[in-house]
Design brief:
Helices cover 41% and strands 18% of the residues. It has a domain of 204 residues: NAD(P)-binding Rossmann-like Domain (Rossmann fold, 3-Layer(aba) Sandwich), CATH 3.40.50.720. The chain has 11 helices and 13 strands. It starts with a strand and ends with a helix. By secondary structure, the chain is an alpha/beta fold. The chain is globular and about 55 Å long. Helix 5 links the parallel strand 5 and strand 6. The strands form 4 sheets. A 7-stranded parallel sheet has the order 3-2-1-4-5-6-11, sandwiched between helices. Bound molecules: NADP nicotinamide-adenine-dinucleotide phosphate.
């Protein structure tokens, strides 16, 4: 039985990981996150509050749980907030990651860490793992620095970079797909950019990639996303189609119309060959992912 510590269990990915790994009899899972309580209040999950920016808290927790694997699904993920609250972003996305890498080195544990396509500038995607990072906003810079902290830490690691995560969970604040669905359900117009393209990722696929990474012995980085590259506008239209919502409320706009605090990569997206070949990663089609999300969404509404 492998002992797995999940950090950021209250997030979109963290909740999915808790559900996926806790039912697997090969694993003993301890869920942790920044909040005092666990948002998945059904089932019998083990949960402890943990702030990854506190070195001493991490140390005392791992001394008692002694994990063989740490999966870091935590992060400051609000891109515009990271632009404005740089110290906070650095603390969570860099210092916190370094803290986890340090305990992994001391324990001889493996670290599975989630990063982002925002480490790239979005000038010439889709990107393979060998492409040169060049972040254009603070979130991307902090996530790249987090990756570099792991690379220089001399531990066994798997870094999974992902893109535009979508899915449902308890108390999940925001993701693009949920925003589109909730707005259309309330008959509100949504303005979506036609000039930011990438392959959105179903959270179940990313959780599965984390599971596949557990047995990886060679330290490396994988690109994990869906297989279809499309604009945010096209993604919103696909969501409306699957959820049978009014697509005439979706208005095409350009990135410059949004005036967002953080600059966004435009031509992004991932090449998935490495993950498909080495990890056996097999992403769900965008339509099937949205059908799954639709079922999960209706369960959550009940
Ligand atoms: N969402 C995307 O579109 C996207 C795209 C590319 C990459 N990623 C990466 O994928 C990973 C997972 O993303 P997600 O969308 O699942 O994130 P999310 O829903 O925003 O959840 C992140 C979680 O991190 C936890 N957290 C924040 N600060 C913490 C701290 N100091 N100590 C411990 N936990 C802390 C929060 O916990 P509490 O709720 O308990 O406060 C939150 O639930 C992140 O690394 C993100 O950078 C996401």
């Amino acid at each position: 039985m492998k002992r797995i510590l999940i950090c950021g269990s209250n997030g979109l990915l963290g909740q999915r990981l808790a559900q996926l790994l806790s039912v697997n009899s090969n694993f003993e899972v301890l869920n942790t996150s920044h909040h005092r309580t666990f948002f998945l209040n059904h089932g019998s999950f083990d949960y402890t509050q943990l702030d990854i920016t506190s070195r001493s808290d991490i140390k005392s927790l791992v001394n008692s749980f002694n994990p063989e694997i740490i999966i870091n699904a935590s992060g400051l993920t609000n891109v515009d907030l990271c632009e404005k609250e740089r110290e906070h972003a650095w603390k969570v996305n860099v210092v916190g990651v370094k803290n986890l890498a340090d305990v992994c080195r001391n324990l001889g544990a493996k670290l599975i860490h989630i990063s982002t396509d925002y480490v790239f500038d979005g000038n010439d995607g889709p990107y393979s793992e060998t492409a040169r990072p060049n972040p254009i906003n603070y979130y991307g810079r902090s996530k790249l620095a987090g990756e570099n902290a792991i690379l220089s830490s001399d531990i066994n690691y798997t870094i999974l970079r992902t893109i535009v995560l979508f899915g449902v969970g308890n108390n999940i604040k925001y993701n693009f797909a949920l925003w589109v669905i909730n707005s259309l359900l309330e008959n509100k117009p949504v303005r979506c950019v036609t000039d930011q393209i990438s392959n959105p990722t179903y959270v179940g696929d990313l959780a599965n990639a984390c599971l596949l990474s557990i047995v990886q012995t060679e330290s490396t980085t994988f690109h994990i996303s869906g297989s279809t590259i499309l604009s945010r506008y096209e993604f919103a239209c696909t969501i409306a189609k699957v959820f049978k919502l009014n697509s005439s409320l979706i208005q095409p706009i350009l990135t410059k119309d949004l005036q967002q605090p953080a600059t966004r990569p435009k031509k992004s997206g991932f090449v998935l060959d490495k993950a498909q070949k080495i990890l056996n990663y097999n992403p769900t089609s965008i339509e099937d992912s949205l059908e799954l999300m639709k079922k999960e969404f209706s369960v959550l509404q009940k």
